[in-house]
Write a structure and sequence with these properties.
Oligomer: single chain
Number of helices: 5
Largest sheet: 3 strands, antiparallel
Strand order of the largest sheet: 1-3-2
Distance between the termini: 34 Å
Structural class: alpha+beta
Length: 101
C-alpha cells in the first residue's frame, strides 16, 4: 500500500491508527508522518519569472496544493518551492521540465 493509498483509505474511513498500523505494518509514528503531510518539498530554479509563473499555474491546477515563488533576481532567476510532493506530483514536475526543454 503506497503512502497515497494509506492517506486515501484513512480519509475515507473511521479506522484508528492502531488498526491502520496492523493493516499496513507501519508504526503509528510512520502513519502520523504520512497522514499529517510530512511529504517532501522541492525547489525549482527558473531562468525567467514568466517560466516560473507558467509552472506555478500548472502546479496549482494539477495538484491543488501550494507553492511559494521568490523574488526574481537581477539575473532573471526565480525560485519556486512546491510542497507536499508525492510520487505522482514528482512525475508532474518531470513532465513540465521535459515540456520546456
Amino acid at each position: 500500500m503506497s503512502n497515497d493509498d494509506i492517506k486515501a483509505y484513512f480519509d475515507g474511513s473511521n479506522i484508528t491508527l492502531a488498526e491502520l498500523s496492523a493493516m499496513t505494518g507501519k508504526t503509528r509514528k510512520q502513519l502520523k508522518t504520512i497522514l499529517m503531510g510530512a511529504y517532501m518539498q522541492a525547489t525549482l530554479t527558473f531562468d525567467s519569472r514568466a517560466m516560473a509563473e507558467q509552472f506555478t499555474k500548472y502546479w496549482s491546477r494539477a495538484t491543488l496544493t501550494g507553492h511559494t515563488m521568490g523574488a526574481t533576481g537581477a539575473d532573471g532567476i526565480t525560485l519556486v518551492t512546491v510542497y507536499n510532493v508525492t510520487d505522482d506530483s514528482k512525475a508532474l514536475i518531470n513532465d513540465f521540465i521535459e515540456s520546456i526543454r
